[in-house]
Amino acid sequence: MSAPVSIFDITLIVDSICQSLILHDIQTCRQVNKHWSSMFKPHLWCHPKLTATTNLTDDKVATLLAHKRWIRSMTIAAMHIEKISALGFTHFQELILYDQNFEYSYEGAPVSLSAIVSLLDNNPDLRSLEIDLNRYHYEVRGQPRELSIALMLAIARHPSLTRLVWHVVEGHANSDFARCLLYVCQQRPIQELFVIQKAHIQPYCTICDGNCSQADYYCGSFSYSDEGFLERLPELRALKQKLENVSMEQLLSERPLAFRKLWLPFEFEGCYLPMLKNCPDLQEVSVDLAGDEGDEVLEALAGCPTLRGLDLVCGRYDMDYAREVQRFTQLQNVRIPQMAKEMLQGVFDSLRRSSHETLEVLGLNISVSPEDVVHVIQSFPNLKEIDLTTVRIYIQDNCRFPSGCYVPDAEDCTVDDCIVRHWDESQMYRPDETMSEWWDHWTKAKRFMHAMSSVYVQQRHKHVLQPMFMRFMYPIKAYMSQVEAFAYAEGTGVWTNSMGRVLTVADAKRMVDAQHEEVERRNEQQREWQRERRSIRYGADSVWEESQRYQFNEYDEAEADEPAREYVIAKSRNRHYSLRSKQPSPFRRPFKK
User: Fold this and answer.
1) Taking the domains of the chain in order of start, what are their residue ranges?
2) Superkingdom of this entry's organism (predicted)?
3) Orientation of helix 435-460 relative to helix 370-379, angle to 10°
């Protein structure tokens, strides 16, 4: 006889089911009846995403307002920030503000600073904030804006923010940026700080249809000494005086830092040592160890009793990784750069001696051999994940694999089914690249997964191995061109009869071919434009001469194969032998005896 099940148990069951369902499945399940609809509604509206392809009409705004009480997290593209800020949301717990780049970087009107700041001030329960904005928000027409300063001041007065992810445009972060941000985080219980360099992407040039080499840009460095900033932000003057009158060591030693997870670039190098010495609860860290203070930083990290995660990817080229890893015990998360097989084996031996029972996540380069991966799975009994950047290998005790994964030697399973649909939350670095570059990543990853599957199946017959599955971590949707992305979102073009369907490898191949054709078309237009310009400037004959200049003729082969001539210098007047039969020039200076 089965035990009675209450409505509260059903609610918990539905809640656990919804955690593993995608949005389309949730929409299908909630159509069963009104009671189930009310159960699925919190999961359906907990995290809406307003991308650059979203047309935020009045009907959609009304729908968002009707379900405002369910929304706890929101991803907002730059063009929608001001409209969402004006709606008065007050229950956000997570906020992601970003620029969605396609084959070119998005360049629009900069978002009002008051709109961004009000989103933070009006949501006192906000726990996580992610900023991923392009250059035009930091400076307009070469003039700097106070975006960074305004954000830091808003963070300093926020009561509950504990996680900050900031993708900073290259060239903007400097030592002043590091000092200011760390001091602001010290005033509040920020537990997770990720500062990631955002690479420059060429903006689209409307004059020459995107082919302009003058369109590259660079962002100005951070500064809090601008008089305009001081006039518009009254709180900045007190912060400026504090940072200028007190050294960084004294600032960071005033009170303990609450950091548990850190990801900081090279620009923070001057703050590494005083900061790490005052982080009693530090658990995971990723800093640049290639500087002059790399040894001191590692020594300070070795003194952290709670450290469980270590990233050595940015270490020096001459670092003894095996010796450095052995200084740490009970590590759970370790990331290692690409290295020779002998050095890699030494690192594995050190990890086996120091963190044999505790290691759960290991980050490697995808150039590692499948045999080494199988050796790692055998060596660490509690290992759960191997991160190869583009490919992730998951190890688990049971044999119930989730959907959308590649299981070696499994029936009805192809490698094309393992592509993720969205970026994983743990992937801090997300490259902005084209579909051709995605195809290169996919080709290399597919070759590795096939080889990994073959080696794993062979070794499983000889040794007892835990079940594992693999996933390709770069979603197709993130690499689509602007035309394809809007067509996919609106259900037009080739997507007319496939609204909302999952993208496949065949779709990616078609988009890669279309991109190559577009590149060839633009190159041909560029060559035609150059020929017309040369024709107008030098005349029609110069165009023919230019086309004939690089053409191969029968003399090229003879000249290429002809041996070097031996020049014989005559004794008298240093004349070449080819000039002996010729009469001397009357203007030549006579030989002086």
Assistant:
1) 1-44, 47-245
2) Eukaryota
3) 60
